[in-house]
Design goal:
19% helix, Rossmann fold, alpha/beta, five-stranded mixed β-sheet, Alpha-Beta Plaits, disordered C terminus, 2 domains, 6 helices
Length: 269
Amino acid sequence: MAKVKRQVIKIDEDLCNGCGLCVPSCAEGAIQIIDGKARLVSDKYCDGLGACLGECPQGALSFEEREAEEFDETAVARHLKSIGREPVPHTHDHAEQPEPAIPAPQHTGSACGCPSAKTLDFRSEARPKVQNNGDQPKLQSELQQWPVKIRLVNPSAPYFEDAELLVAADCTPFAYASLHPDFLKGKALMIGCPKFDDLNSYIEKLTLVFARNNIKSVTILHMEVPCCFGLVHAVRQAAEMAGKDIPVEVKVVTLRGEIEEPKGAASLF
């Protein structure tokens, strides 16, 4: 099979202690414990989306860009069957939309067999009609893309080029009722929780997004709780690593759903 230059998981065997936490997080079964260490079984099983990145307590997992076999859904299905795991459900014909998971910028589809990570761009689609309930108008969804999780987004997705980016804590839409019209409208979206995910994986993904695209601005929207400030750190570090000078605005949502101007966080930029 021909090789292409793409993102593939990299495992530092010196750091790996063989705990196996990364194995179930890889839906394609690309990572297995062999001789007491986590190992990439085959390049063609790795979709490059990095769902496994935040699962390693030793920090042994990272991405590397190198010559590798293209991701092969058919081979993945055979592999999963051979190790007694259910194949990942497919929602599209990969033969019609071939693409590595973190591709060159000209590709726009998705190589992942998992529907949760299929790259979708809604910008050119007509918005669904919103039905009002009596005199109470309903808000219009302003979501422009899928997926939205930091760990799942494709850094080369077309909606990131020339985008205004919203990086939001995943609790914010539940606390702040008007997030869609006030913050999401016209923006690409990345969401996450630095308390429960590996912050280094966020920095790595954000660095790729900043390096591969012209990001016009970043709005960081997070809760007032201390752990949420990790998003500010991740964006700052990623911008520095990508060598980009990007205008950044930080907004804090209180636990009672109000916007509070940050004290000191904005001075990081």
